[in-house]
Amino acid sequence: MDENLHNLTWDDLRQWAGGKVLGRGKTYIKNVRDLARTENGGLAAWVSGSDDYATRVEAGRDGDLESLCTCPYQWGPCKHAVAVILAGLEQIEAGRVIPPIDRAGELYRTLVDQVDVDDDDDDREEDDDDGKTGAGTNVAAQSHAPDRHIAAILGTKSKDELISLVLALAARHPEVERKIIEDEQLHSGRIDKLVAALRREIRTVTREEAWYNPWNEEGHRPDYSHIQEQLAALLGQGQADLVLDLGRELWQEGKTQVEQADDEGDSAEQIGACMEIVFRAAMASSLSRPAQVLWMIDTLMEDQYSMCDACEQFARSPVYGQGDWVEVAANLEERLIAMTKRRSGDLSGRYDRTMIIDWLSEALKNSGQEEKVVPLLEREVDATLGYERLVDTLLQAGNHELARRWCIEGYQKTATTAAGIAAGLQRRLRELAVREKKRDLVAAYRADDFFASPSIATFSELRQAAEQIGCWPAVRSASLAFLESGQRPERASGQGDRPPWPLPAPEVVAGPSGRSPREYPDLSTLIDIALREQRLDDVVSLYQAQRQTRRPGVGKGREVAAAVAATHPDVALAIWQELVITRIKLVKPSAYEEAAVYLRKMRTVYQQTERPGGWEEL
Fold first, then answer.
1. In a 3-state reduction of DSSP, which class is residue 15?
2. Are residues 59 and 66 in contact, defined by beta-carbon separation less than 8 angstroms?
3. What is the pLDDT of residues 398-407, one digit of tens each?
4. At what angle are helices 589-608 and 569-584 packed, to 10 degrees?
5. Residue 344: which residues within 8 A CB-CB, separation 6 or more?
6. Which one of 79, 152, 225, 376 has the fewest beta carbons within 10 angstroms of its own beta carbon?
7. Distance (Å) of CA 320 to CA 107, 290, 299
């Protein structure tokens, strides 16, 4: 497998395919079959969906990903290509070898046929560039090689033969007949029947049940492709107002369908693609430009399923100038005032209010009224709990002192009711201390994190901060004592024989984490720290204490045994033997396999300690 493919990260794939396609591709991994390695180090496979698609992905000469798929998707990398890459990475991580592609197989032939078509396309384009295009070449057919091939065949037929052929196709394929009639209606301007039919189709498709069971690949996914095609065709004919009107109906009906759908997001993705056309129509409609932006904002605020994420770009288009945003800001401000009169402080009302404030803040900035943003956020901060947004805005403006004051006030008001917001404010206070190079305060916040949620990770972060100010030995001793007693050292500082706590008090102090109450001594964390510090005698002692309080198979046995096998072999053997017995009692093949792993470890230790009799007795 090519190194460029092997080293791909999730962010690389997101940048290549886009977030939505990447998400859809992840759900198709299980649909990948006959995965094979191509001659160029790429990947090829069949990917099943509404049909079986031959798919190939390779790294080009410059390292960029290139994909080829027989699916009808034409707007960039498809979900099938993403699925093939993810399936290949899974095989590599599992240590399984990906076989070379069978050159005599159907997959290889299908991909080669597709490549041949593309190569023929390139050759013809070169001919065109040299001025060698034949007089009978169909210009519309130059965009796709298959079209040119068909054009060459059709060019040999008479008018009557062509009419007969089209009539036969229309008789066999109703969609051909529909396409002919719809095109005639579009180009003649007689679109009343077309629009009426499209409106009926929107109502029909949005009321279909949308579901899919990936285990048996059964389900029903509504098809919006024709609706999308017709909306684009109407917009292309200058019918922007009509498309906007149809889009409004599609949006209202489609939201209900998506809310009830269980089809892995397929309906939401298709409706989102249609809405991109509708947003474009809004920009070309007879609405005033401020009204266009407001309609887009309203639609985006109603979008609870991220269907229109790609459409935010239209609302932020440079087409809309400062004067347009002045009107938008005034409208949103009026709405906010009206909302204040009728909305209560419930969660739903707070969400709606927050959305209005976010867009109003952006409108004020875009309209040259940025000085109004902070006062707006300050007025609304209690109603929306928007402390983090306010603090971030102040930090961006360089007003650190006011940002600090709001962090402290916001923390005090949210510590017991909105722990996530409180934690975010505390993190910003720590980041402020880092920015201002107050290292003792940074260490104090790291200590607070550790006392609120003891773990090897928070202990390591505390160590790094305390070492920078030269007080790690005292902080370490107090932290280990905390894990024994559960008593925070700064609160017992100087009491009895306790040494003074070397760190200052942070501006806010976190309470216990939202997890289940901890029991002290916290033997699990003490063991983790002893393992990290390679105090193996302490590891054994702490583990023996933990065994008195835990049932077999629970605790740090696996980690302890692996760490002390060389220095305390009898301890490791006892742990592994206990694990073997508990696994065998489960009477399951997977448990037997796990027990065999521990038995092999035991045999190694018996051999290394020259006690073959112990192994034979076992």
1. helix
2. yes
3. 999 999 999 9
4. 160
5. none
6. 225
7. 50, 8, 17
